[in-house]
Amino acid sequence: MSTTSFAANPAIHHRLLIEKSPDILYAALTTQEGLSSWWTPDTIALPEIGSVSRFSFGPDYYKELEVVDLVPGKLVKWQCIKGFQDWLDTVMTFELESHPKGTVLLFHHEGWKASSNEVASCSFDWALFLRSLKWLCETGKGFPYPEFNKV
Questions:
Q1: pLDDT digits (tens, 9 = 90+) for 70-118
Q2: What's the CATH code, domain 12-139?
Q3: Which uninterrupted H or E stretch holds 12?
Q4: Facing residues of 106 across strands?
């Protein structure tokens, strides 16, 4: 039996330095080739506001995310419109800030209706996927699903 208590209105936040320019990171976050190289190979995506990207993780699970904001080299924002119930209407934001060594990525996944084990698990998975994004940008090789947690 768990005695863990959770905060109301949880959010996931990560911050990391990627030693490449904001333009390289932006391309990895917006193009089908980039996204499939760090998140999941089964990706359909267009870098256009209002488009819907589809990310599949095996035969029985996928997410559809609407692109709600794009600012080249600075910002990518998605809203979940299909997926697990806990994900619906959540918003993922990737803020890119220039840094002398490359780019600082500020990642936020907000709008969760309640704290849960799913939020905690998702936070851990995002950390692994963001590490994959960092490796893709810095070395040219990411570790997308299903390899993201085996490195």
A1: 999 999 999 999 999 999 999 999 999 999 999 999 999 999 999 999 9
A2: 3.30.530.20
A3: strand 12-18
A4: 15, 95
